[in-house]
């Protein structure tokens, strides 16, 4: 029979009065009292006190000495997730002081500290002599952990959540790797503490072999600083900094680096980047991001970013169900070798107000948008305001400002026979002010209007097994006109023709150009839904015009009285396979544009690939054809190993543009990442390079990390 005792005044009490929360409960199979000062509990003994739980086979309590003599196996747990295992122990009645034999401590179910003898001191410190520390699984069939730290003395400070090592030796599969006289590490429950982070290694053909050793500085609960020195074998010296701070309404982060190397002798190279986001009153959001860099090749040389046109901005936005408001200031800077920044629109401002509404008098759904836009080029020579020094068709110093208003409306009806009819209209008004360009200088106003009707006739058929087929022919007739105006086209040069804008009043992406009619958008779509979990969608269409307005280039697929054919296929299968294929081709089936994406996502492997084909187009700034394929794949070839490959091949240049291989190992105690990359492209400031990176993380220190599968024990 199990006995439950609430020890109130005689046993498990000191001589001084105790508060109610200091009282202990004892559960055992048998309880006996020997003399006046000794209590003996035997058989499945459990003691509960102040969030601690002690389990043992026998406990003897000496009231006079205030000492618990405990016979194991012993399991002591607390509400912080710490577990202590031992064979024998002598502890004070509140478990805060004492000695345990053949003891092991498990912190946060991650890190294990084992020793022949362990001391608990003041309920705060746990001291272990000749200890072994590891987070790796150990069993009889594999008694040697993947990694371990052996030390003559290990002290765990439960209050500061720190682990201190004296005379520490780090071993890999039992082999000593390095030794340090003193070491301090955070325990698994501590997420932010000043100290060194895991080092990483990087080798490149330009900089040689290098090592990074980050040092994390906890400035406060809301801010921190990470300082990372980087030293390489080819005399490169870098200091990286990262500062983060959290506020009640948002956060900021700044990163930067300063370098001296042999790539640019005698010069200090570097970059500075910052970003942040804040919640403002009335549901507005403020965000900013920006980057400055010393030279064109720095970001690539040090593996920071592949960005070659830097976008720095500050923006205020608000998004509600039927409303969108945005105001932004953007600065563009190109680090491409052939770009001249003074001739690029480096400063851009936009303010947008957009709203959707339902007009009660005429029904349907309407929209209204008011937008102001301006962009500025720093090139400023009034004597040569017509100069086009880089031959891009734009005056080098042209500055432009625009105020635009757009209103649209659409209403749908269901006609007899299941025909869906719609009426739609769109009205635009744009006021332009252009400077430093004699061909377009001055103020201009342009008005544009378009209206159309649309007919859709969906045919639906239900087949065997719940399969549904939908065929939907669509005809859209649009009339559109714009007033004569002398306005250059800068924001609508890149035109896409796909199933998303096949049935559109205007296929130009910006405001500088408006598509003119009359024209007819004709197409047919087919969709198959299968209960087995896969679907197929096909769209075929074309645009017919009454006249060739010469608004589109041949490479867009929209030139001429009739456009090229558009065909799009989408296939989705429940087992993780998806295929998207878009093609634009002429009457002779010559491909104008082509894009194909294939993705296969399974539990242990995955593949994603894309192919893009574009014809050369001077209007879009593309002097050569584009024909490239990219491939990304992953494969878990063992329970703890994952491999990833990536490559991009240029068929026009007949060579690879880039290639990469990543290997990652993760188990319950170690995370290992290796990356090998090769960039084949070159320019004036950038040359082909090969890089190799390695990072090693010992899991179980400083925060609860995502852990991989542990090795199975046998025998």
How are the secondary structure elements laid out?
Blueprint: E1 3-7, E2 24-28, E3 30-34, E4 38-49, E5 52-62, E6 67-77, E7 83-92, E8 98-107, E9 111-121, E10 125-134, E11 147-157, E12 162-172, E13 175-186, E14 195-196, E15 200-204, E16 208-212, E17 215-220, E18 223-232, E19 237-247, E20 250-260, E21 269-279, E22 285-293, H1 298-301, E23 309-320, E24 323-334, E25 347-357, E26 365-376, E27 399-414, E28 420-435, E29 442-456, E30 459-462, E31 468-482, E32 519-530, E33 534-545, E34 565-573, E35 577-585, E36 591-601, E37 605-614, E38 626-638, E39 641-650, E40 655-666, E41 670-679, E42 689-698
Antiparallel strand pairs: 1-2, 2-4, 3-4, 4-5, 5-6, 6-7, 7-8, 8-9, 9-10, 10-11, 11-12, 12-13, 14-17, 15-16, 15-42, 16-18, 17-18, 18-19, 19-20, 20-21, 21-22, 22-23, 23-24, 24-25, 25-26, 26-27, 27-28, 28-29, 29-31, 30-31, 31-32, 32-33, 33-34, 34-35, 35-36, 36-37, 37-38, 38-39, 39-40, 40-41, ...
Name its key features:
lipopolysaccharide transport protein A fold, 715 residues, mainly beta, 1 helix, 13-stranded antiparallel sheet, 1% helix
């Amino acid at each position: 029979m199990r006995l439950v005792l609430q020890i109130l005044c005689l046993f498990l009490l000191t001589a001084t009065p105790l508060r109610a929360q200091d009282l202990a409960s004892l559960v055992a199979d048998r309880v006996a009292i020997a003399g006046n000062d000794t209590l003996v509990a035997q058989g499945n003994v459990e003691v509960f006190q102040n969030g601690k739980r002690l389990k043992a086979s026998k406990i003897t309590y000496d009231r006079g000495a205030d000492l618990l003599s405990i016979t194991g196996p012993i399991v002591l747990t607390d509400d912080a997730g710490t577990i202590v295992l031992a064979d024998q122990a002598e502890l004070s009645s509140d478990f805060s002081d004492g000695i345990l034999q053949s003891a092991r401590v498990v912190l946060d179910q991650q890190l294990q500290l084992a020793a022949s003898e362990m001391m608990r001191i003041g309920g705060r410190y746990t001291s272990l002599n000749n200890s072994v520390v590891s987070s790796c699984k150990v069993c009889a069939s594999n008694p040697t952990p993947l990694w371990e730290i052996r030390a003559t003395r290990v002290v765990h400070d439960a209050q500061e959540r720190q682990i201190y090592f004296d005379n520490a030796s780090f071993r890999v599969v039992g082999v000593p790797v390095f030794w340090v006289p003193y070491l301090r590490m955070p325990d698994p429950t501590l997420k932010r503490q000043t100290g060194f982070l895991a080092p990483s290694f990087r080798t490149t053909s330009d900089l040689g072999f290098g090592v990074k050793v980050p040092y994390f500085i906890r400035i406060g609960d809301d801010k921190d600083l990470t300082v990372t020195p980087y030293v390489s074998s080819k005399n490169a010296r870098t200091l990286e900094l990262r500062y983060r701070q959290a506020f009640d309404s948002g956060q900021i982060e700044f990163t930067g680096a300063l370098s001296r190397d042999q790539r640019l002798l005698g010069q200090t190279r570097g970059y500075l980047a910052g970003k942040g986001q804040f919640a403002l009153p009335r549901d507005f959001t403020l965000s900013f991001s920006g980057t400055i860099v010393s030279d064109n090749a720095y970001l690539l040389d040090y593996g920071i970013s592949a960005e070659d046109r830097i976008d720095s901005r500050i923006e205020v936005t608000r998004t509600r169900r039927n409303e969108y408001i945005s105001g932004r200031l953007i600065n563009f800077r190109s680090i491409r070798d052939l770009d001249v920044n003074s001739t690029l629109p480096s400063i851009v401002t936009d303010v947008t107000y957009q709203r959707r509404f339902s007009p009660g008098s005429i029904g349907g759904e309407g929209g209204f948008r008011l937008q102001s836009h301006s962009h500025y080029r720093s090139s400023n020579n009034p004597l040569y305001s017509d100069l086009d020094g880089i031959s891009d068709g734009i005056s080098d110093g042209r500055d432009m400002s625009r105020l635009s208003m757009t209103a649209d409306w659409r209403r749908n009806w269901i006609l007899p026979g299941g025909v869906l009819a719609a009426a739609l209209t769109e009205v635009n008004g744009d006021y332009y002010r252009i400077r430093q360009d004699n061909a377009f200088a001055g103020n201009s106003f342009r008005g544009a209007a378009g209206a159309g009707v649309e007919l859709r006739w969906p045919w639906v058929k239900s087949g065997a097994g719940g399969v549904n087929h939908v065929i939907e022919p669509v005809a859209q007739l649009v009339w559109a006109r714009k007033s004569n105006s002398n306005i250059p086209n800068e924001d609508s040069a890149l035109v896409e023709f796909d199933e998303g804008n096949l049935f559109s009043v205007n296929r130009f992406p910006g405001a500088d150009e408006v598509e003119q009619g009359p024209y007819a958008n004709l197409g047919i779509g087919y969709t198959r839904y299968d209960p087995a979990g896969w679907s197929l969608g096909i769209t075929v269409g074309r645009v017919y015009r009454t006249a060739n307005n010469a608004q589109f280039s041949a490479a867009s697929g929209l030139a001429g009285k009739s456009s090229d054919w558009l065909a799009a296929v989408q296939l989705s299968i429940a087992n993780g396979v998806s295929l998207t294929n878009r093609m634009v081709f002429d009457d002779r089936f010559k491909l104008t544009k082509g894009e194909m994406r294939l993705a296969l996502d399974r539990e242990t492997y995955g593949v994603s690939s894309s192919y893009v084909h574009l014809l050369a187009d001077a209007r879009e700034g593309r002097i050569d054809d584009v024909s490239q394929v990219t491939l990304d794949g992953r494969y878990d070839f063992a329970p703890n190993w994952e491999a990833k490959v990536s490559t991009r091949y240029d068929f026009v240049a007949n060579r690879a543009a880039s290639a990469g291989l990543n290997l990652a190992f993760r188990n319950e105690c170690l995370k290992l990442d290796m990356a090998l990359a090769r960039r084949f492209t070159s320019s004036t400031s950038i040359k082909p390079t090969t890089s190799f990176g390695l990072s090693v993380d010992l899991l179980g220190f400083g925060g609860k990390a995502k852990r991989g599968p542990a090795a199975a024990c046998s025998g």
